User: Which sequence fits this backbone?
């Protein structure tokens, strides 16, 4: 799997893809990212964290009757792709993902040392 | 025609799209309801000799709350998309996903049978399949 990963990445990067809309929300514990990927089944979703780059890719798989001719298409490419650069204080190793009904929810926690700490000021 | 595509693409394919849409603008007479792009949910429409297929890209919606209606040859898809609101202490960095009530309307061809409709929701896509009337199906005519 890891052997052919770079080759696959090269191939997919050249293909045109749709940019899925996202919401990114940050709180004290980390970042939550929601992405709309309608039409992507669970096994069509590819998430990758490499160094500080997060890549979200999804292949759309719609059931289409044979011989269908499209007359109007707003979703006109069969895949989504979006790439984000993570910042240092995020713990890329602890990303958790949920995917249901075309909505992806990613939680990226902040590294322990980056969690906000209240610093007590002592008066001496 | 000012709108923002719901799913923008990279620059080259955007140029491609622009060219195609300019062509469409000048060569076709659009329907009176347009089929405005950029609305939610995004829609694809296609057809086979037996049916008309409509795909509405509406992720994260409880299918029971979707209203699908056919009246006088017009298909309406309406509903509401509620997104979890961010906690007070949280910061919203990017806010692109659609939230709120929506309604989209598609003019159907004349030969569809409004009583033979099948609607399914899977992976965030609502697929509406409407059969064409039997009488409208192509028939081979034998020459005596």
Assistant:
């Amino acid at each position: 799997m890891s052997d052919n990963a770079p080759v696959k990445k090269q191939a997919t990067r050249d293909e045109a893809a749709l940019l899925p809309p996202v919401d990114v929300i940050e709180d004290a514990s980390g970042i939550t990212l929601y992405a709309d990927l309608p039409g992507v089944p669970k096994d069509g979703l590819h998430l990758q964290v490499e160094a500080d780059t997060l890549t979200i890719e999804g292949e759309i798989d719609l059931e289409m009757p044979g011989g269908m001719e499209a007359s109007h298409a707003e979703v006109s490419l069969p895949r989504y792709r979006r790439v984000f650069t993570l910042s240092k204080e995020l713990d890329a190793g602890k990303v958790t993902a949920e995917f249901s009904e075309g909505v992806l929810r990613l939680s990226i926690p902040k590294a322990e040392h980056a969690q906000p700490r209240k610093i007590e000021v002592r008066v001496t | 025609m000012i709108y923002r595509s719901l799913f923008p693409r990279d620059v080259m394919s955007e140029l491609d799209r622009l060219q195609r849409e300019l062509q469409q603008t000048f060569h076709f007479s659009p329907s009176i309801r347009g089929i405005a792009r950029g609305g939610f949910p995004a829609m694809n429409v296609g057809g086979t000799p037996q049916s008309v297929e409509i795909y509405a890209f509406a992720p994260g919606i409880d299918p029971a709350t979707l209203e699908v209606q056919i009246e006088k040859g017009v298909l309406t898809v309406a509903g509401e998309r509620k997104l979890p609101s961010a906690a007070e202490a949280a910061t919203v960095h990017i806010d692109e996903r659609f939230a709120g009530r929506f309604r989209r309307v598609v003019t159907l061809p004349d030969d569809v049978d409004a009583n033979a409709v099948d609607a399914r929701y899977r992976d965030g896509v609502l697929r509406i399949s409407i059969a064409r009337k039997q009488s409208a199906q192509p028939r081979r005519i034998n020459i005596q």
